[in-house]
Amino acid sequence: MPMLADPSKKYKPYTPLNLPDRQWPSKVVRKSPIWLSTDLRDGNQALANPMTIAQKTLFFDTLVKCELKEIEIAYPAASETDFQFVRGLIEDLIRRTLESVAGTKLAIIHMYNATCPCFRDVVFRNSKEETIALAIKHTKIIRELTDEYSAKYGTRFKYEYSPETFSQTEPDFALEVCEAVKAAWGKAGTGDERIIFNLPATVEIAPPNHYADQVEYFCQHISEREKIAISLHPHNDRGQGMAAAELALLAGGDRVEGCLFGNGERTGNVDLVNLALNFYTQGVSPNLDFSDIQSVIEVVTACNELPIHPRHPYAGELVFTAFSGSHQDAIKKGFEAQRIRHAEAAKKGELQYWDIPYLPIDPADIGCTYEAVIRVNAQSGKAGIAYLVQQHLGLDLPRKMQVAFYQVVQDIADREAREMRPEDITTAFRETYHFGSSKYEGRLVLKSFKISSEPSPDTTGSDEQPADERRLFDGTISVDGALRVMRGDGNGPLSALLDALRTHLDIDFIIREYAEHSIGEGSNVKAASYVELVRGGQDIKDARKATESWWGVGVDSDIAGSGLRAVLSAVNSAIGDRELPELKLNVGFNAKSAQSDVANAILNSLQLELPRRLQGSFFEVVQRAARGTGGELSYSDLIKVFRETYNYEQPDPNAKIQLKKFKMKSVGDNGHKNFSGQFIWDGQPRDLTGQGNGSLSAILTVLNSQIDGTLSVREYAEHSIGEGSDVQAVSYVELAYNVEGQKRRTAWGIATDTDITASGLRAAVSAANKLGIVQKQ
């Protein structure tokens, strides 16, 4: 059946009260009410699967932790479970209820009967007089039993009466019933002795202002108002239970009954959490504790077996979340402005008020984090994305970079058609800008650098004006996994690096925009730099108009280092997977590559720290090798020349001497060594022995015994390479060979071994093989 075009033919409107002098609209709540949780009674009776004793006990403990002082724990006459639960906490109808709380210090006994015309005429078929008589009769029974149990167990009782369906009852009849109940109770006093009159909107049938009028009318006309606590029990049939409670408190209510998160019959009771936090956000303490609201949610949902709606005030999963771009922008700006405002207030000793767009409460106050404040989907804006990057990575992106990264995130969100979680966004950022750990490194990675300065050749200084200086970049960069030494110069560190990339790798870019800020404080402070690059080879005007650009970011404890890393971050995005030219050393006439560049290349490729004199010797070898190529030598050719020159990690085809096995023993207390070894000498095996004051002098004693002339150690060095179980010793030995009547010759030998003694002996033999030694006849 469709909805009626004229619903007035089926539904009667509520009858408003004639209350011309109503006071509640001009009042303001200054203190919180008395709270009563009816989760375990009204809430439980509304569940498809009522709670077990264990569940009710867990729920009760949670209510106590939230600092609820009054908890309606059961309807003991309704079921054995409710009866046993009450006994478990502290043993038909009225007597059974009193028995269930016997022994507790203080209990409130709640009795009600329905009073509205519909229930009087249809459900109970009672007249007004019979309805009043019923309330009086059972109030007197409760009076007798509470006196009895007080005397027997020492329990102090308070009495609560509800004219059920109060909001549908004639106002004057509700007053008549309550006056009769108060007289029958006969013990109403002030303070803790007040009788409680609970005024339920059992079914919400009118706007909240009407309920407030009914409550104010009752408060104005009930006798001995000071001996009465007016309790409110709004339901939510019209979706206005929260408003009804707040307005009725203005109208004179002292107490509110409800459930956590609004459970209850049909559309539920008023939500105590929502109402309490409404007070809290107005600066009024609710005297309830929801500092860990998530743990409360977990207990309530587990016990009620009902979910919390994602949009539920204060408690829903999405209530602190903004997907909209304009909302995200406002929140981001709100946090930034509040940070400044709070800092100024702290200096002045003023209160630091919360004032953030779209967030009426600080999520942290109820145990929530800011992670979900801004969430990202295809509808989100750049401000929200930038906020998440700032919160999780500490990076305050320049506006143009926000726009660039926004497009990256939008493309992912559109492609995958889902919400982007914070970890998705930070991962996308790291991958896009090669930011963070080695997992996200690009093709070019800064390993080490030095920035120095020299006077600019184009300027001359004076006493008043010093000459301009140029910056020199001297660094090691990993290029596709291979370490390379590069040099460049410019008017600053960043332009010097760009010059090095242009010179060595034919990568040509210029800087269009640069920004920086600090991260952290004190000794932990770091610099964050942001660089926008455009293609080189164009003038400044064209560069400013260029539509294609690449952003990069770098973080370092050194401001120059962060800028250099930002440049490489942008370059990595720009070059993609394009093939890079092989790096070459220029060691010819007017060479740009020096001896140290060659040594660094060997260090980076082979981990060998060449002694200074070996560096000079090998540099001469390299220069000779590069003569046929115009003074240029690729890194791979350089390593090949090194291996062939020193037979490093490869056999020497021209070797006369090979050491196969040896033993070294100490002699006496002076550290002398006895050497015995098996050699292959000109293809023939020889067992030789000798002694010296160390291992090298011992093997030289052996070698000198077999040759004309004399071998001596000119220089020796050693170090380790590798780590852990893979560590090896590297030895460098330079030998001098003196033969009477001939010019002295020198040569270097290099060898590795897991044993430091063995590496030294093999290096000595290697050097000897390069000296053209002559055997004795």
TrEMBL record:
Pathway assigned to this chain's UniProt record: Amino-acid biosynthesis; L-leucine biosynthesis; L-leucine from 3-methyl-2-oxobutanoate: step 1/4
Assigned EC number: 2.3.3.13
SMART domains xref list: LeuA_dimer
Reactions mediated catalytically: 3-methyl-2-oxobutanoate + acetyl-CoA + H2O = (2S)-2-isopropylmalate + CoA + H(+)
UniProt xrefs under InterPro entries: 2-isopropylmalate_synth_dimer, AIPM/Hcit_synth_CS, Aldolase_TIM, IPM_Synthase, LeuA-like_post-cat, LeuA_allosteric_dom_sf, PYR_CT
Residue ranges of every copy of the Pyruvate carboxyltransferase domain listed in the record: 33-294
Keyword terms of this UniProt record: Amino-acid biosynthesis, Branched-chain amino acid biosynthesis, Metal-binding, Transferase
NCBIfam families linked: leuA_yeast, PRK03739.1
UniProt cross-references to PANTHER family, sorted A to Z: 2-ISOPROPYLMALATE SYNTHASE, PTHR46911
Annotated family: Belongs to the alpha-IPM synthase/homocitrate synthase family. LeuA type 2 subfamily.
Name the UniProt record assigns to this protein: 2-isopropylmalate synthase
Species assigned in the record: Somion occarium
